[in-house]
Amino acid sequence: MATTASRTGDLAERLQVRQTTDRAGLRAFLERDRLFAAYAICDLDDREFHRTRWGAAFEGDRMLALAMEYVGYAPQPLFVMGEPDGVTAVLRGVIRPRAAYVASLPGHLPAIERVYRLGVGPPMVRMWVDRSTFAPAPGAVFRILPSEIGDLNRLYNLGFTAWLPSEAVSSGVYFGVRIGGRLIAAAGTHVVSPDARLAVVGNVMTHPDYRNRGLAKQVTSAVTQELLRTCDQVVLNVRSDNPPALAAYAALGYREHLRFEERLAHRRISSWDSIVAPLRRFFPPRKES
In this structure, which CATH number among 3.40.630.30, 3.30.830.10, 3.90.190.20, 1.10.3470.10 belongs to the domain 14-125+261-280? Predict the structure, then answer.
């Protein structure tokens, strides 16, 4: 009887990796876990697809794994899914950003670490809602217009490092709260797919002077309610070490789908590095007193 190691080795030898633009094939593979792959599914739409590069591992004609990088950001978003050996093969041979924010299931971390050094961080929680569970939170919110992008970015500059273009507002859904004419809370979308009837909520921010008043819950509710007019599911990400946010989204009807990893990754520069670096988790450097 073959051992697990030998079966794994046999699979790695049979794999073929290549870049692909077959949206139908990619969509079919991603739909195996629609909620986990929500960002990637939305990126298959015409508006986003030209900003992405996809690599896949095949055994014959059967896709076993994929990796997608979203170009234009530094570090670039990187998503992986499928057989771990296939993930490693794609990252070695096809999708090769020098630095990336990689999103993966916990079980894929060893496969990614063969090619990348990974930073540390708390697990992320993927939550989702549909019309059957959504419980709106009332509040005096308003739809943010593209012409208000300056106010939005002034708010985001308090906690985010990247500024949004006005196109992000015109192609997405953003709601806010103003006090005395000043924008003090906002929520919006990362990506929306009319074709897949799926959307991702994000960019939720409240001015530090106005937190703990339920404003983030109100603007997130408004964005979600608008999206559910045309989408079957809406998803969002929350850090697992943020209980107040988890509770606020749960009160809106969001449910936990799974926990995943979102890590800063830097490509290894030598084969020796790929062998030694995973051991550093077990033998960390000694701190000087």
Answer: 3.40.630.30
Q: What is the pLDDT of residues 243-264, one digit of tens each?
A: 999 999 999 999 999 999 999 9
DSSP 123-182: PEEEEEE-TTT--------EEPPGGGHHHHHHHHTTT-SSPPPHHHHHHS--EEEEETTE
- Structure pTM? 0.87
Q: Is the backbone peptide bond immediately before 75 cis, with ω within 30 degrees of 0?
A: yes
Show Cβ contacts of residue 116 under 8 Å, excluding neighbours closer than 6 positions: 91, 100, 102, 265, 266, 267, 268
Which pLDDT tens digit goes with each residue over 15-28?
A: 999 999 999 999 99
Phi-psi region of 197 (alpha: psi -120 to 50; beta: other; left: phi over 0): left
Mean pLDDT, rounded, of the chain: 90
Contact at 8 Å (CB) between 89 and 17?
Answer: yes
**Do 78 and 265 meet the contact criterion of CB atoms below 8 Å apart?**
yes
- How many helices and strands, by DSSP H and E, does the chain display? 11, 13
259: number of Cβ within 10 Å: 13
pLDDT band at 6 (very low <50, low <70, confident <90, very high): very low
Q: What is the largest CA-CA distance in the chain?
A: 73
For the chain, where are the alpha helices, taking DSSP H only?
4-14, 23-30, 38-42, 46-49, 84-93, 109-113, 149-156, 166-171, 215-227, 243-251, 271-276
Amino acid in position 220? T
Q: In the 8-state DSSP scheme, what is residue 284?
A: P
